[in-house]
Design a protein that fits this description.
The chain has 101 residues and is an alpha+beta fold. The chain contains 4 helices and 6 strands, in the order αβαβαββββα.
């Protein structure tokens, strides 16, 4: 869903970055073989970013899928937690928030 709406987001000045706890090498293979995302994939191998934003399951060492929107000053403005791309309307909610900031 983010792939399909990426141009809408860019038109609002939104920079999409996907963050994963997987190693950068695994992300490169995933992106090349399966995804080909139009936005960067960032490796949070040490899990600091996911831990900071409370999306890391410490026991499983995995992160929940969460969609977060930060403004130009890096202030968190909205979050969809958990984010399921199959649920219609969640990305539209973020686009509405992005229009307002």
């Amino acid at each position: 869903m983010l792939r399909q709406r990426h141009q809408d987001l860019q038109g609002l000045g939104v920079q999409v970055v996907a963050i994963s706890v997987d190693h950068v090498a695994a992300l490169r293979v995933f992106d090349a073989a399966l995804a080909r995302f139009p936005f960067p994939l960032a490796a949070d191998w040490h899990r600091g970013i996911c831990r900071t934003y409370g999306v890391l399951n410490e026991e499983a060492q995995a992160a929940r899928r969460v969609l977060m929107l930060f403004d130009g000053d890096a202030v968190l403005r909205a979050a969809v937690d958990p984010f399921d791309p199959a649920v219609p309307g969640k990305l539209d909610e973020m686009l509405a928030v992005a229009h307002r900031i």
